[in-house]
Amino acid sequence: MKKITDYQHKKILVLGLAKSGVAAATLLHELGAFVTVNDQKPFEENSAAQGLLEKGITVICGSHPPELLDEGFELIVKNPGIPYTNPLVAKAMKMGIPIITEIELAYRISEADMIGITGSNGKTTTTTLIFKMLEQASMHPLIAGNIGTVASEVAMKATAENQMVVELSSFQLMGVDQFKPHIAVITNLYDAHLDYHGTRENYAKAKANITLNQTESDFLVVNADQEELLEWVSYSKAARIPFSTQRFLKEGVSIKNGRIVYFGEEIIDTGDILLPGKHNLENILAAIAAVKIVGVGNEAIQHVLKTFQGVQHRTQFVDEVHGRKFYNDSKATNILATQSALQAFRQPVVLLAGGLDRGNGFTGLVPYLSGVKALVLFGETAKKLEEAGKKAGIQTIIHVDNVEEAVPVSYHLSEPGDVVLLSPACASWDQYKTFEIRGHIFEQAVHRLKESQ
């Protein structure tokens, strides 16, 4: 870790705790800043705040009072989940107080080069593939960000021998200043999180921030099949490595005669890849581009692609029960992710879907439901999804209370050879704290079902 003095004796407000807030406050305290933490959760229920208080950090809990800014803070480190419309944040912006996210701190202290991955879909799978390929090649990777340990915690332990592989959300990328990954990867760009960003333009700008500070000595791996995305990153100074699943690229990563090719070099036959689905080919091409830049050999790449079964909660095979294969795609929190999951299967599908109502409809899902023989729906969006199912001509549509109840119902609606797919197309927050919890409950229900048969 770099022992920087940028924050020494500065009054800094860490806004919002969770893992990233605790890590940021701890790091800044160690770097000599005068840290105040402000979290909405009451102090008596807030073990994280209590732990920081014991370290000598000032803690204010229960709300985000705008008048707190009268104390003269020079910097705010904001939890990515707190919107910029929050009254305290809005006041800070008017006052001209710089606002960053924890990823900026991680970058400033890291001795290791960073490979940063963002995009609307495929971030987690691409991040995991890159990490595993680097690991197979003995390049000492460390994984961080949304996918695992908070980036600044990992950066504190990283050395120049490591490669930090970091999954980045648009929320995090809105709060960067100097942040500059050596390799930036953008998997794709679709409508997502518009309830937070307000407009597609704001969302796209946030994603493009991953290459904002890159120089000619850095690299940008980008989806060449999306013209709009290419326009958003056209200002980038980084060396561009495009990838495409739709056309052959002489300079870049693409598919020719059923084989993945990197700048004319054949890497692997697509038939040897274990990970299912056309959408995963995008992730694979992006990962190959990133690791080839740092010198990973083809044997390491091939080994990972022949053995990697998928990220947990992302089109993850759970188990087979009397000929029905159950897949957990709980991380599909938007329509596009569910579209991709449905395209991965040729077998008849019983689809489990539903969740938080963000105000959108599901018309865009209708063309992808042709292979769905039955819908099992739950959560706030169940009625909207039923409308989409009827438009697609699905005759069997069942409403249940939750994911746990959906599993045995889906089993009885299916036959040997069918796929039972949890791919909600919605966030989990109406019923479950995280999509991981939703996915775990699904997996547990599948295992109980198998034991009962």
From TrEMBL:
Keywords: ATP-binding, Cell cycle, Cell division, Cell shape, Cell wall biogenesis/degradation, Cytoplasm, Ligase, Nucleotide-binding, Peptidoglycan synthesis. Transmembrane segments: none annotated. The keyword Phosphoprotein does not apply. Its main location: cytoplasm. Residues 313-426 form the Mur ligase C-terminal domain. InterPro entries: Mur-like_cat_sf, Mur_ligase_C, Mur_ligase_C_dom_sf, Mur_ligase_cen, MurD. Residues 117-291 form the Mur ligase central domain. Its EC number is 6.3.2.9. It is found in: Cytoplasm. It catalyses: UDP-N-acetyl-alpha-D-muramoyl-L-alanine + D-glutamate + ATP = UDP-N-acetyl-alpha-D-muramoyl-L-alanyl-D-glutamate + ADP + phosphate + H(+). One of its GO terms (molecular function) is UDP-N-acetylmuramoylalanine-D-glutamate ligase activity. Belongs to the MurCDEF family. NCBIfam families: murD. Cell wall formation. Catalyzes the addition of glutamate to the nucleotide precursor UDP-N-acetylmuramoyl-L-alanine (UMA). PANTHER family: UDP-N-ACETYLMURAMOYLALANINE--D-GLUTAMATE LIGASE. HAMAP family: MurD. This is UDP-N-acetylmuramoylalanine--D-glutamate ligase. It comes from Siminovitchia sediminis. The gene is murD.
